[in-house]
Amino acid sequence: MTKYFDGTMMDLEAKVAAKLSDYRFQHVLRVRDYARKLAMANGVDVEQAEVAALVHDYAKERSNSEFLTLIRVKNLDPDLANWGNYIWHGVVGAEIIHDELNIQDNDILNAVREHTTGAAEGMTKLSQVIFMADYLELGRNFSGVDAARRITDESLTAGIRYQIVHTVLHLVKKETAIYPKSITTYNYWINQK
Ligand SMILES: [Fe+2]
Ligand SMILES: [Fe+2]
């Protein structure tokens, strides 16, 4: 049994694996490993970080129509409908994780909600750890990943700043729309020391 899920960690792994392609499940396991390391270094409950990491992409492979239905049924921000899977699997995914896996810990649910965009003030250490573990897990090989890992080992705050700056830069270069919350996250973290 874990404190955050009615079952063993292996039960949770099996439930997550059942809803994801093997490719994505392997990513989830690597995020779990990286989150464990960052949790230990930053005084976050390791079991809580492991559960959050295991469920963070639980809803990633759901259909657009399932997300759009949930946005309506759950009375979520109607503007969400204008975005896509990239935003939905976190924000709407948290609802799915709550309902299907009976995960009730608010810090875990918020970490899932925030894992693609980050957040401005109020991001818990757990949420920061999941945000960075998703970005830095050992399967990632974008240019600068080694520097990003080193920076994050020294300071979680500096790591978050690195990630949000580079993500916004990347989206601008692609001339892709930027979800407003990503800009809010950027404005907040560029000033954090
Ligand atoms: Fe994700
Ligand atoms: Fe992920």
What does this protein structure show overall?
Residues 24-139 form the HD domain. InterPro entries: Diverse_Catalytic_Enzymes (IPR051094), HD/PDEase_dom (IPR003607), HD_domain (IPR006674), YqeK (IPR005249). Pfam families: HD. The chain is mainly alpha-helical. The model has no long low-confidence stretch (mean pLDDT 97). It has ten helices and no strands. It is 65% helix and 0% strand. The protein has one domain (9-189): Hypothetical protein af1432, CATH 1.10.3210. It has helices at residues 9-17, 22-41, 46-55, 64-73, 85-101, 106-114, 125-136, 145-154, 156-173, 180-189. α6 packs across α7 (125-136). The protein is globular and about 40 Å long. The structure holds fe (ii) ion (FE2) (2 copies). Residues 27, 31, 56-57, 134 line the site of one fe (ii) ion.
Q: Major beta sheet, specifics?
A: none
Tell me the strand percentage band: under 5%
Bound molecules: fe (ii) ion
Number of domains: 1
* CATH-defined fold name: Hypothetical protein af1432
| Cα-to-Cα separation, first versus last residue | 38 Å
Q: Please give the number of β-strands.
A: 0
The name of the CATH superfamily reads Hypothetical protein af1432
The CATH architecture can be given as: Orthogonal Bundle
Helix/strand/pairing class, anyone?
mainly alpha
Instruction: Quote the average pLDDT.
Output: 97
List the total number of helices.
Answer: 10
Shape: globular
Characteristic terms for this protein:
single chain, 193 residues, mainly alpha, Hypothetical protein af1432, 65% helix, globular, binds fe (ii) ion
